[in-house]
Amino acid sequence: MDIAALSMGLSQMKLQNEVSTSVMKMAMDTQGGGLEKLMDSASKTMEQSVNPHVGGNIDIQL
């Protein structure tokens, strides 16, 4: 059993795991921002469909 080759293999596997984890985090951050905007938009649309008269008029008295 070649200890140097085993050490290099384990090191490469560790690096590959760290890189894939970093890429996954970046992808999740990128998609998370879009998902948040989508949820806000859907929430506003749902509120307007349930209460279409709310927010349409402003009463001002001087």
Mean pLDDT, to the nearest integer, reads 77
Rg from Cα: 26 Å
Helix/strand class: mainly alpha
Helical element count? 1
| Cα separation of the termini | 90 Å
Strand-residue fraction? under 5%
Reading the helices and strands in chain order gives H
Spans of at least 5 consecutive residues with low confidence: none
The percent range for helix content is: over 70%
Largest sheet: none
Which geometry do the CA atoms define? rod-shaped
Oligomer: single chain
Q: Report the count of strand segments.
A: 0
Pfam families: YjfB_motility
InterPro entries: YjfB_motility
Protein name: Motility protein
Describe this structure in words.
- Helix content is 77%, strand content 0%.
- It is mainly α and 62 residues long.
- It is rod-shaped, with a radius of gyration of 26 Å.
- The model has no long low-confidence stretch (mean pLDDT 77).
Compact description:
The chain has one helix and no strands.
SSE topology sketch:
Elements: H1 3-50
Keywords for this structure?
mainly alpha, Motility protein, 0% strand, 1 helix, 62 residues, YjfB_motility, 77% helix
